[in-house]
Amino acid sequence: MLGSTADYIVRRSPCPVLTIHPEDKVGVDPPQTVVLPTNLSPETTDSTDAFMALFGEQRPKIILTFADRTPPYLEPFRHDTLLKMNQRDVVKEEIERRMEGMVMHLQKAGFEVETAVLDGDPVHVVTEFAREREADLIVMTTHGRSAIINAILGKTAQRIVQHAPCPVLSVRP
């Protein structure tokens, strides 16, 4: 019920926390590819700003991702299904429109930015996407809720930290 020390520090630290797993390949080179998950909330800007402050000189490629969990009764309208059927995806268009502000913010700072709207559970699709794209780092916002509240509401950020195929930089708003 109390969770691990790393989970506690990620939830409570007043400064960004870089979590490195024992099996992560970490070299002295700066990251080349960074996955930046967003839930489109204003707090995502905090992780973006922390990342830019830490890695602004290196300018790695950023892949801004949004995981869209489609309810089972709307399965025929998943983004990947609509793409296969060559149908217009107005939900994906709206998500991408809402991502534009963050994209422009990052591009203005000199970063190359790509966006990805993924279908599925955020923990699974973000970690798999980072693995597929061979990301060097995941940068994300964590809400810092208590372990008891996380047990009730879920803990996406902490689960991504646990399952990520690369180091994770967690930032509290």
Structure description:
The chain contains seven helices and six strands; from the N terminus they run αββαβααβαβααβ. By secondary structure, the chain is an alpha/beta fold. Strands 1-6-5-2-3-4 form a six-stranded mixed beta sheet, sandwiched between helices. The chain is globular, with a radius of gyration of 16 Å.
Task: Give descriptors for this structure.
single chain, 173 residues, alpha/beta, Rossmann fold, 6-stranded mixed β-sheet, 7 helices, 6 strands
CATH-wise, what's the superfamily of the domain at 5-17 and 30-68 and 100-109 and 124-171? HUPs
Overall pLDDT confidence: 79
Query: Helix content range of the residues, please?
Result: 40-55%
Reading the helices and strands in chain order gives HEEHEHHEHEHHE
Q: Indicate the CATH class of the domain at 5-17 and 30-68 and 100-109 and 124-171.
A: Alpha Beta
CATH architecture type of the domain at 5-17 and 30-68 and 100-109 and 124-171:
3-Layer(aba) Sandwich
CA-CA gap between termini:
24 Å
* Low-confidence region ranges: 148-154
Strand content: 15-25%
Tell me the number of helical segments per DSSP (H or I, 4 or more residues long). 7
Class of secondary structure makeup: alpha/beta
Shape: globular
